[in-house]
Automatic annotation (TrEMBL):
Pfam families: FIST, FIST_C
Domain of life (superkingdom): Bacteria
InterPro entries for the chain: FIST_C, FIST_domain_N
Name of the protein in question: Histidine kinase
Residues covered by the FIST C-domain domain: 226-365
Span of domain FIST: 33-225
Amino acid sequence: MNDKETPVIIETDRSGGVAELGDLLQRVSSDPRVQGLLIFACGENGFTPEELDPLLQSQSLPLAGGIFPAILEGAERLERGTIVVGLGVPLRTLVVPGLSDPDVDYTQYLERALGGEDSPSPGFDAPTVLVLLDGLSRRIEPFVEALYRLLGVGRTYLGGGAGTLAMDQAPMILCNQGLLADAALVGFLGAESSLGVSHGWNPVAGPFRVTSSRGTTLETLDWKPAFQVYRDVLERLGVHAIDPGDFFAVSRSYPFGITRVGAERVVRDPYHLHPDGSLTCVGAVRQGSFVHILHGDRHSLVSAAAEARRMSERTRGAPGGTRFFFDCISRVLFLKECYSEELAMVHDAGQPLVGACSIGEVANNGQSYLEFYNMTSVVADLADDPVALQEGASGPLPPQRAGEVP
């Protein structure tokens, strides 16, 4: 790590082994300038709590990470292996369990954890907030809304949903407590950052009114079963072979877009077809909202990633820093061998890049409302210069016992 050029150390293991991860953590954490650790791991590694918990719980530095379908370093996408990032800026972490629990009041939990709205907690001073969460949890939006209500504007939020292409919930969040399921991790970073968000998906049908939904499951559009409306549109577009057993093979090319007044549509990725014709998405689709069916092509998606980079560079204010890239795994599946073009649009050979191909993305730009996106590119540049959060502000916040939900 060079004090003048980058605030991070980035070390990569391509084997996906637990012992190799331990070696990376040892090497990175031994540098006295490192103040926090990030871990990006691939689902193909097959990590389990039994294997990882002793290793994670033994770390003295604050730690945040997740397991993803693929991870990114520089211009390279890995489907097996692990990246450890040593941060040269302050990091404080908070674990929020129960991300599908209908009884959890996330506002109450966060207020207790951070000490209330008038608390001098470092979370309220952090200019950058990293959010890593289980991408298949059923109450992501209520958590994200509670976080934004409490912390508000004037800071950059970025992050993504952990998970694998099996699309089954399992322990995916890495922290000092261990490897956790159905949880979110909030990392308060003591560094300024800039951000760009874009997706490149365009409407081909709609709008349709969401007349019935349950959380992440879309039941009816315009009072008809959601799949009936969806199938009819795709058949008019020439897509006739929709295999219910492999619905995601088609749906990843035709997501939904939720209308937002004065803002770009928020994409929702339908990945599971139910026998009753309802569709489960990554993220909630609220009853009463309006959605379009979207489509894109190689040019529109690659151009959108380039636009996200330009947005971040326009607002950064100073060159340099480390680039973080959260890019939806559905974009990889859609672009296939052309995905390298998208990554090349974001990667600069003179700037470190690290990130993940995620299941949903979390972002705002310091002013607009915080959102949980799907099928979107999120580019953030973390500044070199550290900002003190608060004297002694390091490590995980400990107001509740591990796994306790108020």
